[in-house]
Structure formats: C-alpha cells, structure tokens
Write a structure and sequence with these properties.
The chain has 119 residues and is of the alpha/beta class. The protein has one domain: Macrophage Migration Inhibitory Factor. 31% of the residues lie in helices and 30% in strands. It is built from two helices and six strands; from the N terminus they run βαββαβββ. The protein is globular and about 45 Å long. InterPro entries: Tautomerase/MIF_sf. It comes from Paenibacillus paeoniae. This is 4-oxalocrotonate tautomerase.
C-alpha cells in the first residue's frame, strides 16, 4: 500500500484534478512495483499567496509505505512522479516535485481499528 499526500501551489479543478490524482497514483504504484489498487492519493492545493514565492509550480509529495522497498524502486518512484507532472503540465522541468518517502512497519499502522501487525 502507498498513501500519498500532495501539497501544491497548483490550481487544478474538476476532471483535470481527478485525472492528475489518478496519474500520480499510477506513477507511485508503478515505481514501487505495487498493484494499482494499493494506493490512496490526496492533493491539497494552497493559494500561491499562502507560501513563499516560487518561480513556478511546485508539488511536495509525502509517500507513506511499508518498509524495505529497494532503492531502485524509490528511484523509479521519484522519477515517475516528476515525469508524470512534467507531462501533465506540459512543461519539462517547469513543475518542481519534492518526494518524501516515509516507510512504516505494520506495528505502526492501524486499519479499521486493528494494527496491521495483527491481521
């Protein structure tokens, strides 16, 4: 499973926002070599005046996942997210992505009131 929380200064809405979220989910599961259904993606868009001035679009992604992913999978994850953003916004390097990967053991995750460790 990969849970992704993105924070951006973009202004996407409706179908465009829905499409971007889906594409990022695919970039994440492909990079981490996970089945496509093992993802949850949310994107929070903040007004540009709510953050330090930037020269362009910027999105920070926090990716929460189980531990012990190979480094090559993490490299693919970071690359896939940047490539997806560039293609979506049709700008090579115009969208800066920051990806923070947070791995967690099953003893540190609860789902529906039960620790994953206890499943």
């Amino acid at each position: 499973m990969a849970t992704v929380i993105g924070i951006s200064n973009t202004t996407l809405a409706g179908e465009q926002l829905e499409s971007f979220i889906d594409l990022i989910g695919t970039a994440v599961t492909t990079g981490l070599r996970l089945p496509p259904e093992l993802r949850s993606v949310s994107l929070f868009q903040l007004p540009k005046e709510s953050s330090t001035k930037k020269s362009g679009e910027e999105i920070t992604f926090f990716v929460y996942t189980a531990p012990n992913k190979p480094v090559d999978a993490k490299r693919d994850l970071v690359k896939n997210i940047q490539t997806t953003a560039d293609q979506f916004f049709q700008a090579s390097g115009g969208v800066k992505t920051i990806v923070i990967i947070k791995e967690h053991a099953d003893e540190n995750v609860g789902v529906a009131g039960v620790l994953r460790l206890d499943h």
